[in-house]
Amino acid sequence: MTATGSILVIGATGTTGSRTTAQLVAAGHRVKAAGRRGAPLPGAEPVRFDWYDPTTFAAALGGADRVYLVPPLGDPEPATAMLPFLRQARAAGVRRAVLLSSSAIPEGGPAVGTVHQALPGLFDQWAVLRPSWFMQNFTGTHAHAHSIRAHGVIWTAAGNGRVGFVDADDIAAVAARALTDDQAPNSGLVLTGPEALGHDDIAGILTQVSGRPVVHRRLTYEQMRDRLAAEIPLEFAAMLAGMDRAIAEGAEDRTTDTVQRLTGRPPHGFRMVAERELVRDR
After folding, report:
1. With helix as H, strand as E and coil as C, how does the chain read?
2. Cα separation of 180 and 276, whole Å?
3. Of 269, 117, 96, whose CA–CA distance to 177 is shortest?
4. I want to staple 274 with a disulfide (CB 3.0 to 4.6 A). Which of 27, 91, 179, 209 is the partner?
5. Each residue's pLDDT tens digit, 162-200
6. What is the distance of C-alpha 266 from the center of its chain?
7. What is the pLDDT of residues 67-117, one digit of tens each?
8. Closest CA relative to residue 135, chosen from 164, 156, 160
């Protein structure tokens, strides 16, 4: 894609936003790194942005012709905040939008699925990234990672279901290509790692890599919902627990070639990511 403006990365301090920003900067692109207090990341222009404060939209959009969209965290109806911004972005000259969604949420489905459905009508150049569950959920700041560090336990209602867990670095690599390639994907892209693993498999690999015992404890849907609801709104907790139940029923037991196809290299495996991130953090 011929670059005439900057790339606005919303959620630039987050798991995929920070990695996408770093990869774009390394490739020589001009990046505006957006966050509630600005996002002071190396090589990028920090800009203040808040989904719930429309007065921050214009400055964030100034000079941008492409945008990476990370929805507001924990909002069960993100379209309420996102669609007015997207209409303003189009009017301001943004030509390409790349949205972070989830493999568990179809076009037109709940939450960000509504934004997915609207995106092609707003932009001629677009992509919706639908990654499977992040490998970093077990090594970063997610609740799973906290319970692993504190108790050596992964709590889920996923049973024996398997997931094509994906590295956030691979998501960022696809995002960078979707934002900068001459031709936009103009499609939804399901992103996975190279193999589908159960949470027992994840616990076993973490035990081997970290040297500390990690186990997977199975909960019912109701138990998982109530456990999550102690920290987040009940509606959102029910949705997340429902995603675990869908995993138990086989909904995420798949792999795709999307990372290989868009980046030219295979996706990273979980053992490699665990070794990279856990050994680094010792």
Report:
1. CCCCCEEEEECCCCHHHHHHHHHHHHCCCCEEEEEECECCCCCCEEEECCCCCHHHHHHHHCCEEEEEECCCCCCCCCHHHHHHHHHHHHHHCCCEEEEECCCCCCCCCCCCHHHHHHHHHHCCEEEEEEECCEHHHHCCCCHHHHHHHHHCEEEECCCCCEECCECHHHHHHHHHHHHHCCCCCCCEEEECCCCCEEHHHHHHHHHHHHCCCCEEEECCHHHHHHHHHCCCCHHHHHHHHHHHHHHHCCCCCCCCCHHHHHHCCCCCCHHHHHHHHHHHHC
2. 27
3. 96
4. 209
5. 999 999 999 999 999 999 999 999 999 999 999 999 999
6. 19
7. 999 999 888 899 999 999 999 999 999 999 999 999 999 999 999 999 999
8. 164
Model pTM? 0.94
Place of tokens 């969209």: 69
Burial of 195 (0-12, 13-18, 19+ CB in 10 A): middle
